Amino acid sequence: MNETTPDIEAKIAALEAALGTVNTMNSEIFYWWCTALMLAIHAGFLAYEMGASRSKNALASGIKNLLAFAFIVPTFYYVGWWIYLAFPAGLTIAEGSSAGLPWSANMGPNLTDQASGIFYAAFTLFAATTASIMSGSVIERIRMSGFTILAVCLGSVVWILGASWGWHPSGWLTTTWGLHDVGAAGCVHTVAGFFTLGVLINLGPRMGRYNADGSLNEIPGHNMPMSLIGLMLIVMGFFGFLGGCIIYTADGWLTIYNTPVTLSAFAFNTLMGVAGGMIGAYLMTRDPFWMMSGALVGVISSAPALDVYYPGLAFLISFLGGIIAPKVNDYLVMKLKIDDAVGAVAVHGVTGVYGLIMAGIFASGYANIEGPQINLMGQIMSAAVFVVLGFVPGFGLSYLLKMFGLLRVGQGVELAGLDRVEIPAKAYPEAAVPAFELSPVSPAE
User: What is the pLDDT of residue 115?
Assistant: First the structure.
């Protein structure tokens, strides 16, 4: 018996509805696993910062990372997601931003909304990553309480305001100046790097870092292999991070700006960026720590235009970034006496600016859906906004904490090691040497 036209139409409608459900579920699954993979970034930060610390500070360096993550999850829920939705036009509240308020029906189990939860989760991991960028630089002398306050401010307020301005399809940096930053080199890395610089100025160097004549003393971490493994975990986690930077739709992939892209473009240029940065940093320093930090430099250098770069160009840009970043760090540490324990200002802040400028040079003329085409001046001005947005709150808040004695531990605590005061456990209890048991200075000194 032949089917009637209404029967055929009903089946087509049912198939279309089923296909829509599958596409929605695929989107949920994609961001679910991006979020899970981004957790590797935090395992990596945990390992490499503990390894970069002296053994007397190893647990304190790791625990502050865990505390930052734990505090950012709820604070980003209550404040951060709303900020992203509220301020793309500047400091005026956008229509529809109420969907990000914690009492909104979108911010909990809701069978009619299968997007808010997964995007909140992915952005929360971006927020925690941004805060973790600061954490390595300040090891071995910052108070746990002061660090947590700074991390929450950076991760749940400052960076996400920058993301609303420049990493949102309606963000004013894009619609007005043509900013293109698909991999978040600006709102994540530049903001976090210069926030860190502001904190480091007020925090000051570790005891013994500089001599009276200004000469530098090396303070090596106690476990270089742990740091290298940690940095490699961060590189792995960045595949989740960058996956979370693109939008899954039934018609294909889009960047955060709604321009078309493919996962293949991200695959080519992410791998070429990692390799270029590693090779450049290794040739410049021969230092294993900087070689692996160079992998991060490479990702950040090419991140703003991963969607359009020819892979050979991404490699070259990242290679040059790997050469530049260690030299910038040397200038900050040796000339300006900024004791950045892991080089985060250079690796993230300065490289973020470099990556934005490179996109302005080599991706100039490509179209954004909203606003002018990608252009060099727009990239430079947007980078300047991110620098100021990061540095001013970082310097101002850390200055207030310093005034109230909440920023830095006392000299006795720093000498003895933060683990003895902040953590009721020992990183290496079996390594005690009897001759040092009554000394405030650990054997690692």
Answer: 84
Tell me the three state secondary structure of residue 2: coil
Residue 346 has, within 13 A of its CA and on its CB side, a CA count of 24
Per-residue pLDDT tens over the stretch 72-114: 999 999 999 999 999 999 999 999 899 999 999 999 998 888 8
Answer for the pair 190, 354: CB distance below 8 angstroms, yes or no. no
3 state DSSP class of 210 = strand
CA atoms of 52 and 61, how far apart (whole Å)? 9
Q: Encoding tokens for residue 12? A: 């087509």
The Cα–Cα gap between 254 and 259 comes to: 5
Closest alpha carbon to 239 in 266, 260, 261? 266
The pLDDT tens digits of the residues spanning 5-43 come to 777 777 677 666 666 666 667 788 889 999 999 999 999
3-state secondary structure of 336: coil
Residue 436 has pLDDT above 80, yes or no: no
In the chain, the domains with their CATH numbers are 26-427 (1.10.3430.10)
CA nearest to 234, candidates 319, 308, 344 = 344
Q: Are 273 and 302 in contact (CB under 8 A)?
A: yes
